[in-house]
Specification:
alpha+beta; Rhopdopsin 7-helix transmembrane proteins; Beta-Lactamase; 4 domains; 5-stranded antiparallel beta sheet; 5-stranded mixed beta sheet; 12 strands; 11% strand; elongated; transferase; Sig_transdc_His_kin-like_C; phosphoprotein; kinase
Length: 704
């Protein structure tokens, strides 16, 4: 015995011992649960027990020995007993008259194999030579295995939906053993010798047989299903085709070597070259892959689509998470095209007149689309009933019910690549339509295609509608921002106009007074500066203060109160000198507006106080009046809301603008008020000495 033979003998003994141990352990574990198999439990336990006995006999005597063949026959009889009992579990043995005779015939075959060997070896050894006996036994074994596989297939295929839950695991275990033995006997018959290497791993198959039955015996496992993904199935089927192709090449090449005579070598070489060229041209083509996918889906799956995979792919495509993702409209076309393996598509959307125009194209640059792709009236007929329009059917005059009267534009009818039109409907409104190009492997769409395309089209329509709403909101926000800026400008111009009107009235009475003229020049100069800053601020509203500088608040407060003294008693109480980091004109505007509001809310003889104090790191400016005050609800919901005013002819943006300007200088504006008692506005602006600290904190918050 060579070293390789010894190694394989050791592997065979080890695998069969493992098989015996596994079968014995599982038989003992499911003995108490044998009732779960509806009368077949005892037969299954017997099958496991005889599997263990057969593994031990093979380990001691060998698989081809008379003892090994006898143990194999007894094992197969218990397998057939288990299959028959599973047929009887739901009464099918009484309805299927062929089950009993088939089981009996297979049992006879399993008895004949060891019986013939016994007769020949013990009674008349000269009746057949060893080769003839070997081949006859293999033929009987092949006949028994093939019949058993057919029987177990019918057992599972003809079972009810409820019965399959119980039969799944035993049928899988028996099928695994018999498929392995079918290959084993086939190789042994064709090679004219016993394949010791393949037979050595039979014990591993017996271990798997026991494990599968153990899984089926666990409570709740009857609902566990082995369902390979479509990707794995397509790849497996592709590998099977490649393997069959290679096997066919080898078989034909061998046949040519025998039948070709003197030209055998040339015929073999020509065949191999031709077959290789055919494979290189057909296997990589999209048409071939499409045909393969359609064939596998049609014959191996209950549904054409793996809806989970389709939904994940659709969501990923339409979501466009990567930075290199195409625009939404192109992604919408691709999301629908991938469902049917369409290579290209168009998206048509309505314009302001209701006509549908080209909004996006995906991988379809050659098609010429007119300015008005589909008229509004034609699209109404297309979208009626939410039908998917098959253009080939319309061209041939065999349109589906509901689509016969659809009037398509001429360019779409004449374009040979145009395949289907999918209307995109959201809330009973047509958001657009997608035209898909014909795939490489074209086929007729069925109800499953229509349902999936219809649902996906509705989802795409929802995305497009939400995107249109977002675009409209952005545009409205831009107009709102523009209107807000104009309102600010009108408010400031109104204040300047009031100053000019007051200046003109005073000039009529005091034009000859040199002091008045000097004061008038100062006022005009300040007004001109304010107008210049107003123009500069037009591009700044909503973006903050453009330039921050040290500002001494006491000087600003005194200048402003001096301007108000002629009309009202305004007093400045400067407890601490404060220099803040801000913008002078913005601070003037804030204080001026708040003081004016306090004057308007107060009686003529009630003073208004401007209190300035250092509250490190802030400077606190308080503007206090004893006017009519405001309610908490008014402060919370209306005071700082733009375009809401209690004054006749007011714009209602003064308080809002004051708060925004204070925030732009990293400050804060608060208000305290009680009806009938008065109001306190509190402005907090950062001191110049604390500017760097506050800026650092603010930047840190933005980064976070």
């Amino acid at each position: 015995m060579t070293l390789a033979d010894a190694w394989w003998a050791w592997v065979g003994n080890a695998s069969h011992v493992a098989g015996a141990c596994a079968a014995t352990a599982v038989a003992a574990s499911i003995w108490s649960q044998r009732g779960r198999y509806s009368g077949a439990g005892l037969a299954i336990v017997a099958s496991l027990a005889m599997t263990a006995v057969w593994c031990l006999v093979v380990t001691v005597k060998g698989q081809l020995s008379l003892a090994g063949q006898g143990a194999m026959g007894l094992r197969n009889l218990t397998y057939l007993w288990a299959v028959y009992r599973m047929f009887a579990s739901d009464g099918r043995h009484t309805r299927v008259a062929q089950v009993g005779p088939v089981v009996a015939a297979l049992a006879l075959v399993d008895i004949l194999v060891p019986a013939v060997q016994l007769v020949v070896s013990r009674i008349a050894p000269a009746m057949l030579n060893a080769e003839a006996l070997y081949r006859m036994n293999l033929m009987l074994a092949l006949l028994g295995v093939i019949g058993s596989l057919v029987l177990v297939h019918n057992l599972y295929a003809s079972a009810s939906r409820e019965g399959r839950a119980m039969l799944r695991w035993p049928a899988m275990a028996l099928g695994l053993v018999w498929v392995f033995e079918l290959n084993l006997y086939t190789v042994a018959y064709l090679s004219h010798e016993w394949p010791r290497q393949l037979a050595a791993v039979h014990g591993v198959v017996d271990v798997a047989f026991a494990i599968i039955l153990a899984l089926g015996s666990v409570k709740g496992r009857e609902t566990l299903r082995l369902s390979p993904s479509r990707s794995v199935t397509f790849q497996s089927f592709s590998l099977l085709m490649i393997g069959g192709y290679l096997a066919g090449m080898v078989a034909v090449a061998n046949w040519l070597s025998y039948a070709g005579g003197d030209y055998a070598r040339w015929l073999q070489l020509s065949f191999v070259i031709g077959a290789t060229v055919v494979a290189a041209l057909t296997l990589p083509s999209r048409r071939m892959r499409g045909w393969l996918r359609v064939t596998v889906t049609k014959h191996l799956f209950q549904h054409r689509y793996d809806y989970r995979a389709e939904w994940l792919r659709f969501t990923e495509t339409i979501g466009g998470r990567s930075k290199e993702a195409a625009p939404l409209h192109e992604r919408a076309v691709r999301a629908l095209a991938d469902i049917t393996d369409s290579p290209a598509g168009l998206l048509l959307m309505p314009d302001e007149h209701g006509d549908f125009v080209l909004a996006a194209r995906w991988q379809w640059l050659t098609i010429e689309v007119p300015a008005c792709a589909i008229a509004a009236g034609q699209m109404v007929s297309i979208s009626r009933g939410d039908f998917i329009v098959e253009l080939d059917e319309l061209r041939a005059g065999h349109a589906a019910p509901g689509t016969a009267g659809i009037g398509l534009p001429q360019w779409l009818r004449e374009e040979a690549r145009a395949w289907v039109v999918i209307p995109l409907i959201h809330n009973e409104r047509v958001q657009g339509a997608v035209v898909l190009a014909r795939p490489e492997h074209s086929r007729k769409l069925d109800w499953e295609d229509f349902d999936l395309l219809r649902v996906a089209g509705q989802q795409v329509a929802t995305y497009l509608a939400e995107n249109a709403s977002q675009v409209a909101l952005v545009e409205a926000s831009r107009f709102d921002d523009f209107h807000r800026r104009i309102a600010f400008v009108m408010h400031d111009i109104k204040n300047l106009a009031s100053q000019f009107a007051l200046l003109a009235r005073n000039a009529e009475r005091h034009a000859e007074n040199p002091a008045f003229r000097a004061d008038m020049l100062v006022t005009l100069r300040n007004s001109a500066d304010k107008l210049n800053h107003l123009v500069a601020r037009l591009s700044r509203y909503g973006g903050g203060v453009d330039r921050v500088e040290p500002v001494e608040l006491g000087a600003i407060a005194r200048e402003l109160t001096a301007a108000f003294q002629a009309r009202h008693n305004v007093q400045v109480i400067e407890r601490d000198p404060c220099t803040v980091a801000g913008q002078r004109h913005a601070i003037e505007q804030v204080i001026q507006h708040l003081v004016q509001n306090s004057i308007d809310a107060s009686t003529p003889d009630a003073p208004v106080f401007v209190h300035i104090a250092n509250d490190d790191p802030w400077c606190r400016i308080e503007i206090v009046d004893s006017g009519h005050g405001m309610s908490p609800d008014f402060i919370r919901t209306r005071l700082f809301k733009p375009f809401v005013s209690t004054k006749a002819g007011g714009f209602g943006i003064g308080a809002y603008e004051a708060r925004e300007l204070v925030r732009a200088m990293h400050g804060r504006l608060d208000v305290e008020s009680r009806e009938g008692l008065g109001t306190r506005f509190i402005i907090r602006l950062p001191l110049q000495s604390a500017r760097n600290v506050l800026t650092t904190l603010d930047n840190g918050q933005k980064v976070a």
